[in-house]
Amino acid sequence: MICYDPLWKTMESKKVTTYTLRFIHGMSHATVQRLQTNKPVSTHTLDKLCTILDCRIEDVLVYVPVQQEQPAE
Fold first, then answer.
1. Where in the chain are the domains?
2. In whole angstroms, how large is the CA radius of gyration of the chain?
């Protein structure tokens, strides 16, 4: 699962808010909501975030393996 927890830390350190993303940089409210709920976003959006925040992709997202249930024996 892709998790955007690093994004919020990066935004905080760069003094960027969701308001800034939406109203200054033109990101849609729906896209911001998708990020807030760890839903998929396009690589274009990820590129835009890295450009806005002047950061690397690992400052925006992290891959977290999902625990798979073991079959009952």
1. 2-63
2. 14
- Residue by residue, what is the 3-state secondary structure of 17-54? CHHHHHHHCCCCHHHHHHHHCCCCCCHHHHHHHHHHHC
Q: Which CATH class is domain 2-63?
A: mainly alpha
**Using CA atoms, how far apart are residues 39 and 19, in angstroms rounded to an integer?**
19
pLDDT in tens, 10-50: 999 999 999 999 999 999 999 999 999 999 999 999 999 99
For residue 22, count other CB atoms closer than 10 A to its CB. Answer: 14
pTM: predicted TM-score of the whole model, two decimal places = 0.86
Model confidence over 49-69: pLDDT tens digits?
999 999 999 999 999 998 765
Helix axes 43-53, 5-13, angle to 10 degrees: 20
